[in-house]
Design a protein that fits this description.
Low-confidence stretches: none
Mean pLDDT: 91
CATH superfamily of the largest domain: ANL, N-terminal domain
CATH architecture of the largest domain: 3-Layer(aba) Sandwich
Length: about 475
């Protein structure tokens, strides 16, 4: 399967010198194809090749080259510690890693060959690759918050199906200019934000860092960001108003706080589109470019995607907009499984092709989806009630003094679990915030305790790491 048809046959009449730019460095499509072809020749025949996935033009060339050679591309986070790095290299069996200029010696202790990537090198692009004999194109490792990172095997056909569905949902065309500054070792930044632009044929501007000023200066029509990025944009009115020329702002990878949603709408002239997905399924639910947007709701399933909610016994939960259950999906964009982990693959696979996402959600009568969070940390069972942490977090964020909020359930002899909130705020006390939530939501959803912090721990995608919060 040819994942990236825009790279083949690009002539000077339709090619731009800055078709792909990363942190101010650019290539035209012909140059990208030639540099990727040189990489493809170097890695051809390997079972897999790792990629030092910094936010650089070399990373784009390396990933496209591996895909062109039909070699499994394995992005490695540039800030991965020696242990995580060693696990990824050993688990993927990559004999080599593609690196940019100036890379130092291998820090993992694993013996792999370092292959430098030169964006100025050129070769002829051979007939399309895009996947191994089994159809797998990439192995993307999870964050590893519950153990060693798991390698998610993503088929070329699944990636193509997802990108085509998103192009339809977001009215994404070759006339667009996509702007983002997201990491290039995750689905959001790399698959959506790089391969998506190359598959559609739109121009790509990666800002290097996702600062509000860089977003405003890029002049894009389509923007990707995570909630942390959008919160910073909303806090910079001059930058936010610079996005008024854009036609679509997309938020994902974590829940977008409702105050940020409304601030973006007021400053940019349009409400952002939210979407939902996971590494194992890619993006499965999204708002539409030509449809309504609702704060706190991530939209409808993409074409070909089915969703359902189930309780702890596997029974279907009512789609009434309030009752929450575990979200399961059945989709053509699903992974082929976890590399070397049949046990983990079996744990997330339900009968008849359904995938257990591990997230809890509610679905209303119009099939709009609201994600409440992770089942393991965000489904709180308190006093006989099932409460989604995300709903309580949204209520806290509606307070004008609250900048950040994370809610967890902690063991309680009386209630089973008590709701505890970790909040970044000024000029307000914990009891005042508990009373505020009780006036906004049902009384049983109010936090029993609020801990005030200077900041919340987050990962590279801006998601709060609840496992790293102080003990309650």
């Amino acid at each position: 399967m040819d994942l990236l048809p825009s790279l083949r046959g690009a002539g000077p009449a339709e090619d731009r010198a800055d078709a792909v730019s990363v942190a101010g460095r650019a290539l035209d499509l012909g140059g990208l194809a030639g540099a990727a072809a040189a990489v493809a020749r170097r890695v051809a025949g390997m079972p897999a090749v790792a990629v030092e996935a910094a936010a650089t033009l070399e990373t784009v060339v390396a990933v496209v080259g591996a895909l062109a050679a039909g070699v499994l591309a394995v992005p490695v986070p540039p800030d991965a510690g020696p242990g995580e790095r060693a696990h990824i290299l050993r688990d993927s069996a990559a004999p080599a890693i593609l690196v940019g200029p100036g890379a130092g010696p291998e820090a993992s202790g694993v013996a792999v060959e370092h292959l430098p990537v030169a964006v100025g090198e050129r070769a002829d692009l051979e007939p399309a690759g895009g996947g191994t004999e089994g159809g797998i194109a990439m192995i993307v490792y999870t964050s590893g918050t519950t153990g060693p990172p798991k390698g998610v095997m993503l088929p070329a056909a699944a990636i193509a199906a997802d990108l085509d569905a998103l192009a339809e949902a977001w009215a994404w065309t070759p006339d667009d200019v996509l702007v983002h500054g997201l990491p290039l070792f995750h689905v959001h930044g790399l698959i959506l934000g790089v391969l998506g632009a190359l598959r559609v044929g739109s121009r790509l501007v990666h800002t290097g860092r996702p600062t509000p000023a860089a977003y405003a200066a890029a002049g894009g029509s389509l923007y990707f960001g995570v909630p942390t990025v959008w919160s910073r944009v909303a806090a910079d009115p001059a930058a936010a108003t610079g996005l008024r020329r854009a036609r679509l702002l997309v938020s994902g990878s974590a829940a977008l706080p409702e105050p940020t949603f409304h601030a973006l709408e007021a400053l940019t002239g349009q409400a952002p589109v939210e979407r939902y997905g996971m590494t194992e399924t890619l993006i499965t639910i999204s708002g539409r470019a030509h449809g309504p947007r609702r704060p706190g709701w991530v939209g409808h399933p993409l074409p070909g995607v089915e969703t359902r909610l189930v309780d702890d016994e596997g029974r279907t939960v009512a789609a009434d907009g309030d009752t929450i259950g575990e979200l399961q999906v059945r989709t053509p964009t699903a992974m082929a499984g976890y590399l070397n982990r049949p046990d983990a693959t079996a744990a997330v696979t339900a009968p008849e092709g359904w995938i257990r996402t591990g997230d809890v959600a509610s679905i209303d009568a119009g099939r709009w989806h609201r994600i409440a969070g992770r089942k393991s940390t965000d489904l709180i069972k308190s006093g006989g009630y099932r409460i989604g942490a995300g709903e309580v977090e949204s209520a806290l964020l509606a307070h004008p003094s609250v900048a950040e909020a994370a809610v967890v359930g902690v063991p309680d002899a009386d209630l089973g679990q008590a709701i505890v909130a970790y909040v970044v705020a000024e000029g307000v006390t914990g009891p005042e915030l508990c009373d505020f939530v009780a006036r906004t939501l049902s009384a049983h959803k109010r936090p029993r305790r609020v801990e005030l912090l200077g900041e919340l721990p987050r990962n590279a995608m801006g998601k709060v790491r609840k496992d790293a919060l102080p003990p309650a």
